[in-house]
Protein: FtsK domain-containing protein
Amino acid sequence: MTHKPTAPTPNIPEALRLSDPGVREQLQALPDSLVLIGWTTDGQPVCADLDAEAPHVLVCSATGGGTTTVLRTLTAQLLHHGAHALVLDLKRSSHQWTHGLPGVTYCPGIADIHDALVGLQAELVRRIDHINQHGDADDLPRLTVVLEDADATLHSLARHWNTVREKSDPKTSPAVTAIEELLFAGRQARMHVLLAGHLNRPFGLEARENFSTLVLGRVTTGTWKRLAPHIDTIPKGNTHPGRVHVVQGLTAHPTQVLLMTDAEAAAWVTTTAAEEN
Structure:
């Protein structure tokens, strides 16, 4: 879904930053279910609506194409509104800005990531039970799983499980199963996945249907055809920093991503309503 309030500028900027005129005001005006990705070529904001359709966002680009930046910007907005976040950072360097922030569980090692995801599966069950008892999950905080370098992380989780599992344990890693279940059941439980990767094995292409928003940077024609086969005309690649295509429905919006530094993202998380005004 594209949210289109009045934009402060008529054309896509060369860069879009938190300090630019109108950007903070735009973020303040958005409800907590909408996260601003950036602005289109006609100056319109492009947002992901986590309460509409599938609740997850997939980000894919070549190395250096801005996937970490997009995840950082979206995560900061959600935390700013009181969401909790499980940050899975196999590289141990992509999201250190979240260290010590309220509501964040930061997991840098594969064993920690495995244990956190197994716990996540239990949380999903708990939330569904809560919904069955109370009718909805509106009183539960949003929980966002930030999965950086997803393909490598999933591969490492499978290898880790092969080294620790007992003979009576299932062959598939319960951590991988937890992510898969979250992709299919997350919406009703106010649980979201922000995933950077190509959706290669073990999930397969059917998992793509659980992402209502795709943010595609410098990707190959083959990746376009695999992740967004419903887009008839594949857009030309662009090496401009922060320039992506946001695929929502049958449309691919050329978009300049909102760029937040680590320090800006951390500060935005702890900004109060009084400071905003």
